[in-house]
Amino acid sequence: CETCSKEEAKYRCPRCMKYSCSLLCVKKHKLALSCNGVRDKTAFVSVNEFTDLNLLSDYRFLEDVGRTADAAARHCIVHSPATKRLLYCLRNKARGCNIELKTLPVGFTKRRENSTTFNSAENKFYWHLKLIFPHCHAEYTLKGVPDDKTLADILKPYIDPVESDPVVCQRLKIYTASPQSDVRILMKIENRSRNSVRYNELDASRSLLDNLKGKVIIEYPTLFVVLKTLKNDMVVLGQDGSEPAENSDSESSSLSSAEEGEIRDSS
196-247: per-residue pLDDT in tens? Predict the structure, then answer.
C-alpha cells in the first residue's frame, strides 16, 4: 500500500494508479492528492501499449463528446439574447484591454463554472481564476479577483508563511518554506499544437490585467505556481533554446509568422 506502507495492496486507483489496501487508505490518498478516482480517458498511451480496449475507450469517448456537443448546441441558453449580449460584452471589453478572450459553448465545464464579470461603473474585470500548485498536487479556484490586484497579493493567502491559512499553509509547505524569489508563475500559451506546449512566465509584481495583456484566454486564466529549485516538465517560451520569448509589452502581442504558420498547420 502506497499510503500506509503496512498492508498488502488490494486496490489500484484508476486515475493516478496508486496502490491501496483499504477504503480508509483510498480516501486518504484521494484527499492528499486531490484525486477523484475517475479514470482519465484522455491520458497518453504509447503505441506499444495501445490495445483494442484503448481503441474502444477512445471510440466511446468521441461518441460522448459528440452527444455533449449536440446537446449543448440545442440548449435554449445558447440562443438566449441576454447570454449572447453578456458574452459579446465580455469579449469586447477584453479586446479593449488587449486580451483575446475566447468562450466555449454551453455544456463545457469551463463555460459552466466561469464566473468572470465586468463592472462598467468601475471599468474593471473581476476574474474567475484557477491556481494550480503542481508540486503539491493542489489547485484552488478564486472568484471575483479584481484585475488591478498584483499576482503577489493574490498568492499571499496561499504561500505566504505569515498571511496564509494554516490548513493551506500545511498543504503547500513546500512553497511556504521556499524563498519568494524561487516562486515562478506560469500560464499556458493557447493555440499551440499538443506536442509543442509552452508557457509564459508572469511578473508577480505586476497586476493581473498587465500580465494578461497580449495573451489568449479561454474562459478564464489558469496560473501554474512552480518552484525554480524543483524539476517540472513545463517549458517556458524563450527558455528552451529554440524559440524566442514573447514580448510582454501590450503593443507587441501579435504572434510571429512562424508561430502563426504552426497554429494553422496544427488546426
Answer: 888 889 998 999 999 999 999 999 999 999 988 877 777 777 665 555 544 4
Instruction: State how far the Cα of 224 lies from the Cα of 89, in Å rounded to an integer.
Output: 28
User: Rounded to 10 degrees, what is the CA torsion of 129, 186, 138, 103?
Assistant: 40
Residue 212: Cβ within 10 Å count:
23
* 112 found inside a domain: yes
Three-state DSSP at 210 gives helix
Whether residue 205 is contained in a domain is answered as: yes
Inside any domain, residue 235: no
How many residues does this entry show for the chain?
267
246 vs 256: CA distance, rounded Å: 9
Count each helix (H run) and each strand (E run) in the chain, helices first. Answer: 9, 10
Q: Which residues pair with 213 in a beta bridge?
A: none
For residue 170, what are the domain limits?
Answer: 76-227
Report pLDDT digits (tens) over 35-48. 888 888 888 888 89
Q: How far apart are CA 267 and CA 259, in angstroms?
A: 12
- Name 30's Cβ contacts closer than 8 Å, sequence gap at least 6: 13, 36, 37
CATH of the domain at 133: 3.10.20.90
